[in-house]
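Hey, resending since the last one bounced:
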Amino acid sequence: MLEVLNDKDYEQFRKVIYDECGITFSTTNRSILDSRIKELLRKKNLETPQEYLALVLKNPDEMKLMLDSVTTNLTRFFRNQPHFDAFTNYVIPAVIENKKKGMDRTIRVWSAGCSTGEEPYTIAMILKEIVPAGFDFKITASDISLKSLMVGQQGFYADSKIDGIPADYLAKYFTKVEGGYQVKKELQDTIHFDYHNLKNDSGARNLDVVFCRNVLIYFDEPAQLTVINRFWDAMAPQSYLFIGHSESLFGMKTQFEFLKTDWACLYKKNR
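The structure tokens again:
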């Protein structure tokens, strides 16, 4: 019988995960961490959590696999439609008008915590439809889950996963194949999928839009502030930040300004 996490084991794993990526496990979601570690022990044919912890601490690849296992990847196409309405009707027109003042004609978007790719593909479809001639766009999609990134890169989605995609978009940007739909190459080529730990600087600069939705809820306030400040550093003047509808920067010492549009609320970097 595999050993489950006692209080000492739990605290050690919780600290390692927090130190490595900023994700916080509380008493309310302890059972999730317990079950995921127990499953990893089974796969590695190890008897105790301490054996697995020792492996994780000496093997960076195993650390990535563990972080992949303990994160939650819940997403869907066009999730929280009002955000995409604001993106379509307010944000991108504003970004384009601002770019007309200079020489840069590339719109740069980061989907941070992209999970299995539904969000960046949604963004790509919208941009394909609304970006005018003379402008280009680039999308970076990142996650801490290598398994999720592989799904996004492959661009295959089962029939049950395509709910929410308008019929005309589905016909235009997907090919029906056995068991589901395959994203067409012209859309895949607009997205660069990349492993990234949000606790670290991505190296990206001059981003016009950042989506980081339903990710901050897994961080405590100090880790949230670190992530938000890194977004600020990565973003261009007159750029926009979307976070989850249940998330807020209220009470946090950030430089972002709250922005309420006719469609949704978001945040703006004005300088």
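The beta strands are 106-112, 136-143, 156-158, 174-177, 180-183, 191-195, 207-212, 235-243, 257-260, 265-269.

Sorry for the duplicate.
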